[in-house]
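Dear Dr. V.,

Thank you for agreeing to look over these. As mentioned in my earlier message, I'm a first-year student in the group and I'm still getting used to reading structure tokens, so any feedback on how I've presented them would be very welcome. I ran two proteins. I've put each sequence directly above its structure. The first is here:
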Amino acid sequence: MRFTSIACALLALAVACTAKPPGEDGRVRGLHEISRAQRHVFMKGWTGDWSGHESDQEKGLPAPPIEKPWPPDAVLVDLVDADSLVSGVMPLQEAIGRRRSRRSFTDGALTREELSYLLWSTQGISRIVRGEDGTVRRHYRTVPSGGARHPFETYLLVNRVDGIPPGLYRYLAVEHRLLFLRDVDRPVDEMADICRGQRFVGEGAAVFIWAAVPYRTEWRYSFVAHRDILMEAGHICQNLYLATESIGGGTCAILGYDQEGLDRFIGVDGDEEFAVYLAPVGRIER
């Protein structure tokens, strides 16, 4: 069975726990609607033998694309090639020791090279394996992913980056380029509205927003995919923390946001794709 959202997965787990699903239409709309025990089942993934449940991969269905398409007339912004990056030379031990959540940013801008480095550090592709027909069979990024499925898309609110106009973008990991989506007139106010009054979010030089495309992982792991997806968000954001510290900047992971508002801001449907995590990045006083 294919689940199109974490909410649907939680519903299935609620049924598995022999609890009646809430709501007249039987849909679970929030974690508050299910019991503590059912939430624990979600964290575990599954408490029984799930090996007999066929995934779409085992059924022979084609794998979903590793990247969303874009219009042929889209505006693309070149980034600094990964092989040419010189940012982030701080020793790893020092970056780990300095890691903190930073909520105060200066008016300083990031360089295009620094932003390229942060994008590569969090979702950059290190190797692609292609079939004889040229199609991508498997790809590896700078963060771990169960089955190398990599279910996340990176959206980027650019406020102050040298050589890149402000606006909302999507990172094209295979091409290592930015896809321009739209202008944002009031980034600080909009982020404050979405993030429950946290104005510092929109004051960063850039804001990283990660959205999950669950079926990329569901295709292989069916109903146990969702725990893995959420763990991977942590891998990505920790890389951002360390990479940002290594360039003398700072970031702060944000989970306090309005789900529908953030989905609407980045232009996703909230079902087949939805926001999971975000983090502003900026210069800090040392």
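The second protein is here, in the same arrangement:
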Amino acid sequence: VLRYFLLSTHYRGPIDFSDEALHQAWAGLDNLYDLFLRLEEPSNSAGYGDEEMNEILNIFPDSFNEAMDDDFNTPVALAKFQTLRGEINLRLLTGGLSHGVRTNLQETLRKFGRVLGIFQVPTKDWKFRPVDKSFGEKNSQLSDDALKNLINKRNEARKRKDFKRADEIRKFLASEGIIIEDKPDGTSRWKR
């Protein structure tokens, strides 16, 4: 997070250090690690978004290198990662991406991230935890089994169209620092 924070300011510019700035760096990096998590999920997609994604992916190296060649402009290089993240998320939601394209995207992100020293922590080791403005982590007291049980109950309530109960469970889990994300196929994933 500190490295991402430092890279978000041009090396010749002043660094405005604050808890808010660290929180923003954490959030930006967390969004990118969340993308890795989504790309690692099993996919049975026909890959209708593959062609568009491959075109975007072919442009990325040049735009990244252009930012770095412009007096080591790391803030612009980080912005290129965030733009690519948005494009990938759009393709995942609309057309789906095949396993091969997902793997290629992960390799490309890690390859160019290595230049900046980011994305070197394995996704499974990244801590997806909501943090408050002072970087205090919220830790859930729920066991994994209790958590899975609540998520199953929530999914059952959604199937029964009991959205009030499903929202109650989601709010309770959010109060425990657990984020639930619903996928288009009707399943859910969670992160602490």
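From my reading of the second output: The beta strands are 179-182, 188-191. The helical segments are 2-7, 19-40, 50-69, 74-94, 99-116, 144-159, 163-175. Does that match how you would interpret it?

Kind regards,
E.
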